[in-house]
Amino acid sequence: MKINGKPWRPVWLENDGWAVGIIDQTRLPFAFETLRLENLDQAAHAISAMQVRGAPLIGATAAFGMALAMRQNASDPNLGAAYDRLLRTRPTAINLKWALDDMRQRLAPIAPNERVPAANARAAQIVEEDVEINRMIGVHGLDLIRQIAAKKDGPVNILTHCNAGWLATCDWGTATSPIYQAHDAGIPVHVWVDETRPRNQGGHLTAWELMNHGVPHTVIVDNAGGHLMQRGEVDLCFTGTDRTTATGDVCNKIGTYLKALAAQDNGVPFYVCLPSPTIDWTVRDGIAEIPIEERNAAEVTNVAGLAENGAVVQARVVSPGSSAANPAFDVTPARLVTGLVTERGVAEATAEGLAGLFPEKAA
Ligand code: MRU
C-alpha cells in the first residue's frame, strides 16, 4: 500500500540482498521509522517486541530471520537453534510455526553453503504468496460488501478489531483487504475502528492505514461496538485471526469474542478473514488447545500517547500499586462466526466448511 504516494511493504529484503528492512510499528502513528535487521537476535527481538506484529507478518519476518541466521552460521545445529529461538518469540499466531517449519524442511536437505540464497529466495516467495492470498481474500470479501451495499443507501458500516491491515501482513491486510477493494471500486464504506486496548493497534495502526488510503473511518472505544450494533449502525464485522482451528474456532486479539457475542445478539454478520497458513489443522478445540500469550502488565497500566509538546510519552492510567493482567488473545467459538473468508472463498466455520475449501490439508 502507499504512504504519501510511495508503495511500501512492512518487510523487505534490502538492496544489498541480505539484510532485512521493516517498518517499526512500535513508533506508529507518531513517527514513521524503518529498521534494518542484520542477524537472528535482531529478527527475534523485532517479533517479540512487536516492531513487527500480526500473524502473517510474524511468519514472513521469521522466514527472513532464518535466512539471517544461516548467513551467520549455516550448520545443521544452527538451523535447529534458529528455529527454536524464533519459535519462542510469540506463542499464539500459528503462521510463525508454519513459516519456520516450511523453512526448516526446505533448508535441512541442502548443503550448508547453499542455504543462504535458498532461505532468502523462499522468504521472498512467502511474502509474495501472502500478498496474493490477501488480494484474493479481498476479492471474496468484496462480494459480501457488495451484497449489503446493494440493499441500502449510504455507506456500508464495517466494524473491525485490532489491526488486521496491511501492516499485519505483507500487503492488503486480511480484514482490510475487502475494505480497500470496496473503497477503490467506488463502493461507499465507513469503518468503525476498535481502539483495541491495551496496545491500541486499532487506534494506532488501523486508523493510520485507513487515513493514508482515504477510507472514511471512526475510532471507537472497545466497549462501544455492542451499543452501535443495537442501533443498527454496524452492517457487518470483519476481523483477522492468529490461529483458526480445523473446526472453525477463531483465536484473535483480546476482545474479539465480545464483539462476536454482541454481533450474534444483534443479527450482525461476523466474518473472519484469514490466509490458509493461519489454520492450525492439528487443533480442534480452540479454547482448550490454543496457547494464549500473556504479555507484560505494563501494557495495561500504561498507555503511550502524543503530548501537547509533540513528545511521545508513556502515561500511567491505573491506580499506583494495583496489579494488572494482560491476556493478549481470546477464542471465539465457531458457532458465533458467520463465515471464514479465505483465499479460496468463504467457508462455513465448521470442519466440513474448511475441509470443503482445503481438502488436501484437512486430509
Ligand atoms: O498482538 P498482535 O498485534 O500481533 O495481534 C494481531 C492480531 O490479533 C490480528 O488481528 C491478527 O494477527 C490477524 S492479522 C492479519
CATH secondary-structure class of the largest domain: Alpha Beta
- The portion of residues assigned to helices is 25-40%
Cross-sheet strand order for the largest sheet? 8-7-6-9-12-17-18
Radius of gyration: 20 Å
What's the number of helices?
A: 13
Bound molecules: 5-S-methyl-1-O-phosphono-5-thio-D-ribulose
Query: What overall form do the CA principal axes indicate?
Result: globular
**How big a fraction of the residues is strand?**
15-25%
| Main sheet summary | 7 strands, mixed
Mean pLDDT, all residues: 97
Count every beta strand, where a strand is a DSSP E run of 2 or more residues: 18
CATH architect. name of the largest domain: 3-Layer(aba) Sandwich
CATH superfamily label of the largest domain: Translation initiation factor eif-2b, domain 2
Task: Quickly give the structural class.
Answer: alpha/beta
Query: What is the CATH topology of the largest domain?
Result: Rossmann fold
Task: Describe what you observe in this structure.
- It contains 13 helices and 18 strands.
- The chain is an alpha/beta fold and 363 residues long.
- It folds into two domains: 127 residues, Four Helix Bundle (Hemerythrin (Met), subunit A) (Up-down Bundle); 225 residues, Rossmann fold (3-Layer(aba) Sandwich), CATH 3.40.50.
- It has a seven-stranded mixed sheet, sandwiched between helices. A four-stranded mixed sheet has the order 13-10-11-16, covered by helices on one side.
- The two termini are 36 Å apart.
- The mean pLDDT is 97.
- The site of 5-S-methyl-1-O-phosphono-5-thio-D-ribulose (MRU) has 18 residues, from helix 2 and strand 11.
- 5-S-methyl-1-O-phosphono-5-thio-D-ribulose binds next to helix 2 and strand 11.
